Structures are given as structure tokens and as C-alpha cells.
Amino acid sequence: xQLNAYLNFNGECEAAFKFYEQVxxxxxxxxxxxxxxxxxxxxxxxxxxxxxxxxxxxxDTVLMGSDSPPDRVSxxxxxxxxLQFNTGAEAESKFKALSDKGEVGxxxxxxxxxxxxxxxxxxxxxxxxxxxxxxx
Length: 136
Prior knowledge:
Blueprint: E1 5-9, H1 13-24, E2 27-33, E3 51-58, E4 61-67, E5 81-84, H2 88-99, E6 103-109, E7 116-121, E8 127-132
Parallel strand pairs: 1-4, 5-8
Antiparallel strand pairs: 2-3, 3-4, 6-7, 7-8
């Protein structure tokens, strides 16, 4: 069994996954549009070039997502994607890249439970926690 996160976007799935590929060093495995699928005729014509399903491999983890019809998209709430690193420098670097044009909820810093920890929402509104529990 594998548990993976699935993110819904309002027309920004392709941009988000290309951003994650660059920032996280992942590899987009699949990026399919509504056009040419059985779902093409169920969505408004302006959605046909949006993403029906995307999958990116980041390390041993797969992150998936799609563009949802506007009436079915809501801001992510009640969860965060968590990135764990072996060094504070790695954590700082990824935190800085992910928070570019986003919103920092808790600046990266030393805490009672971690060498480095911070929380943010990226430019697409996806919540992240970045942590380095202790230096290797």
C-alpha cells in the first residue's frame, strides 16, 4: 500500500507541477489534459486544455493533482505537505524556493523539536512544512 497526496487546482496544476519539479528536483511522470479524454465533453470548453491528471515523482514519493472545475475548488485547509531534510542548509534552501511569491506562516528557524522548521503556503496556495530535525 502507498499513501499519496492529491492536490486540486483552479487552472494552475501544470504551472504548480513544473514549479515542484524545478524546486524539489522531482520528475513529472504524467501530465494529461481533459482534451482527448472521455472527460473532455463533461467540462466547459475553456477547461479542455487544463490538466485532468498529473503525477510527479519526488524521491520515493508520488504527488498527484489536477485542475478541478471552478465550483469544486477550495483553498487547502487542515493539512500540509511535509518535507524532511538531513541538513539545515537543505531545509533553508527549499523553504526559500517554495515560499517565493508565497506566504510564510512561520519563518524558518530553530525550535525545541527541530534544528530548522518553517511553514508556508506556496504561490499556488498549497501549505508546506519544512523540517530538519537534527543535522546528520
